[in-house]
């Protein structure tokens, strides 16, 4: 089994994904928001790259809530933003969401050539890796990044996923060089994860905007057992039932 970590979404190519299990990582905050939303009762999420796509989908899915952000700020007139904590405090059971974010939802759609596509992070790493290992495919961990640059928080989460895989796999595996680097980085910071996440560029911006609590929340290890799965044929994310 090959395990490849890709540092930013713009580096991914279709041939990197074909017949592979893809795990999308966007810790601050799309991955964490999707995991939290589904864990708290949301029935499904449709990812949209643009606000225009959101409005088109809304014409069909008229009962769906609109959610998302641009550069960490809630989009005006939308029902919800992209803070995972929003989805822990509202009655959202069986609700449906159309979600657009600055980088994360674009990455989800771009990963559509993968055979299986999961959304992972610190919040659900054990469940996500368990699902991936069961499928016995090569694994691609796609770090979304921040404004076309590598995001430290995504790299640390990729390292955490590799660490979880190494502790739970009875299969032979080979990790690419970048994967080895982020694994080493995660092990170095493992005991001070929240502290190092607070120093990242994304976290600094979130703190300035009043979303500092999202950083601590998103760094919790295996807080949820849900593993979101993206079905590109339906352009829909639901909890994996595999």
From TrEMBL:
<protein>
    <recommendedName>
        <fullName>Probable 2-phosphosulfolactate phosphatase</fullName>
        <ecNumber>3.1.3.71</ecNumber>
    </recommendedName>
</protein>
<dbReference type="Pfam" id="PF04029">
    <property type="entry name" value="2-ph_phosp"/>
</dbReference>
<keyword id="KW-0378">Hydrolase</keyword>
<dbReference type="InterPro" id="IPR005238">
    <property type="entry name" value="ComB-like"/>
</dbReference>
<dbReference type="GO" id="GO:0050532">
    <property type="term" value="F:2-phosphosulfolactate phosphatase activity"/>
</dbReference>
<dbReference type="InterPro" id="IPR036702">
    <property type="entry name" value="ComB-like_sf"/>
</dbReference>
<dbReference type="GO" id="GO:0000287">
    <property type="term" value="F:magnesium ion binding"/>
</dbReference>
<dbReference type="GO" id="GO:0050545">
    <property type="term" value="F:sulfopyruvate decarboxylase activity"/>
</dbReference>
<comment type="similarity">
    <text>Belongs to the ComB family.</text>
</comment>
<keyword id="KW-0460">Magnesium</keyword>
């Amino acid at each position: 089994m090959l395990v490849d970590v890709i540092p930013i979404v713009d580096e991914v190519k279709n041939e990197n994904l074909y017949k592979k299990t893809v795990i999308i990582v966007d810790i601050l905050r799309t991955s964490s928001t999707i995991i939290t939303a589904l864990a708290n009762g949301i029935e499904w999420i449709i990812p949209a790259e643009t606000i225009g796509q959101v409005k088109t989908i809304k014409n069909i899915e008229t009962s769906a809530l609109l959610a998302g952000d641009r550069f960490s700020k809630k989009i005006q007139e939308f029902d919800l933003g992209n803070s995972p904590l929003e989805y822990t405090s509202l009655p959202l059971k069986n609700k449906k969401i159309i979600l657009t974010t600055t980088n994360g939802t674009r990455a989800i759609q771009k990963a559509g050539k993968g055979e299986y596509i999961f959304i992972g992070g610190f919040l659900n790493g054990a469940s996500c890796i368990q699902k991936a290992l069961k499928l016995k495919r090569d694994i691609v961990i796609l770090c979304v990044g921040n404004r076309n640059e590598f995001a430290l928080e995504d790299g640390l989460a990729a390292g955490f996923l590799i660490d979880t895989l190494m502790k739970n796999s009875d299969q032979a595996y080979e990790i690419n060089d970048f994967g080895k680097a982020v694994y080493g980085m995660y092990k170095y910071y493992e005991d001070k994860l929240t502290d190092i996440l607070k120093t990242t560029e994304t976290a600094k911006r979130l703190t300035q905007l009043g979303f500092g609590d999202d950083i601590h929340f998103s760094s919790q290890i295996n807080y949820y057992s849900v593993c979101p799965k993206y079905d590109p044929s339906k352009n829909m994310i639901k909890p994996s039932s595999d």
